[in-house]
Amino acid sequence: MSWKQIALLVLLADFAAFTAYAGFHEGLAGFVPLMLAFAKSSAWGAQVMIDFLLAFAVIIGFVVADARRRGIAAWPFVALTLTLGSIGPLAYLLHRERASAPRATAARAAAHA
To answer: Quick one: the chain helix, strand, coil %, rounded to 5?
Structure first.
């Protein structure tokens, strides 16, 4: 396992655990009233929410395009992103690293042969 895979796995596991903790204590939709109140509270609150949504749209676009190039199904990671936020892109990056590891190892072995 490479250092990238270990770092992504630790980050994904920690964030997923924190998301599970928040969901357990606040409910799975507990963030919705908070988001709405934040967006209504000020222009900056609305700007942050719009920025957040735009960032996720860009991330989903990257995941779909990159997955197509690599022959990976993107829909599970898009679904995770839409339902659990950053867990989706983190899971995609980990999957992408794990899927490319055998090819990278084979390429290094061929180069040394």
So the answer is: 90, 0, 10
pLDDT(113) > 70: no
Give the structural domain span for 29. 3-112
Q: Which two tokens stand for residue 80?
A: 């995770």
Residue 11: C-alpha distances to residues 27, 86, 87, 89, 106 (Å): 22, 10, 9, 11, 27
- Rounded-to-integer distance, Cα 45 and Cα 56, Å: 17
Residue 98 structure tokens: 């794990």
Question: pTM above the 0.85 mark?
Answer: no
Alpha-carbon distances of 6 from 1, 50, 77, 106, rounded to whole Å: 7, 32, 19, 20
For 85-104, write each residue's pLDDT tens digit.
999 999 999 999 998 876 65
Q: How far apart are CA 45 and CA 111, in angstroms?
A: 53
Written as six digits, the tokens of 65 are 């395009």
The number of folded domains in the chain is 1
